[in-house]
Amino acid sequence: MKALVKYRKGNGFVEIREVPVPIPEEGEVLIKVSACGICGSDIHILHDEFPNDPPVIMGHELAGTIAKVGSRVSDWSPGDRVVTELHTAACGECKLCRTGNQHICPAKRPLGSKTDGGFAEYIKVPERLLHKVPDNVELIDAAITEPTAICIHSILEFGKLKPGDFVAILGPGPIGLISALIAKRIGAGHIVIAGTNKDEAVRLRAVRKFGLDAVVNVEKENLRKVIDNLTAGIGVDVVIEASGSPAAINQAVQICCRQGSIIAIGLTQREQIPFRWNEAVIKETKIFMPFSSTWTSWELALQFLSERVIEAKKLTNRHPLEEWEEAFDDLENGRAIKTLLTV
Ligand SMILES: [Zn+2]
Ligand SMILES: [Zn+2]
Ligand 1 centroid to 325 CA: how many Å? Predict the structure, then answer.
């Protein structure tokens, strides 16, 4: 089968290769992949800025149909439409696993970085990671479940966003846009989203149709002034940092109210970045740094897809797997919101 493989450590070293179809073992299923979304972390893996163990098939945001089941698989059958969490090899025995936090189990070997992933015709995964795709959701569209689960875990489960909160979202990438839609769904009071010139053509344009309180290009407008005007100088209740940009992160404390929250989703490209430490202490800022997704966040993500809170067709474009290079480049340069590679 064809698969997109990171074959060596370092910047680059990714290509389509012909590899054997995996054989599902005890407790595993083989999934025929329909589509797999390109994540920010895939771009980090391409540049070797995110942990990865080559040679490995990349991709973890997949949806597909079960083609075969291994021995002792009782709950799933060929033909079932599924999406899969990526927490392969979580031990099930450590304190984290026993308290529902297998997504940060030290033994975990995530799909697409340390275990073969979904940019391929087939993938095998343990059945315990599967979720059923609702009948009214198209299989290709379901590839957006994972980033939706990330946002749900980050802003609702971990960051405790509440109805009525005034929210500022930094970064109008897929995580920022999905976060805006979720915040709206749970009744956030006001939502402001910010991006840069690079985001203007596609991402800011898309988000202007969401009906938010303000869409700010920080290279043309002063975000702090916009927020001071909207909040009478008090600042927002919650900043959702979804840009990874050191400048944006540095501003997060400034635009947050006293006892407000900063929820940081995702990585930056640098090991260390400046942060307004003293200002954050004086304001008693709550800082949340969630990672990955939980079983519960996947279930709610699928409900939001089924309810059309999240509509994949409005957030994604599609390329065949063979065009991965162009698709990665478009995403890295803000020429698309989110791209699904179809197989
Ligand atoms: Zn992802
Ligand atoms: Zn564990």
Answer: 18
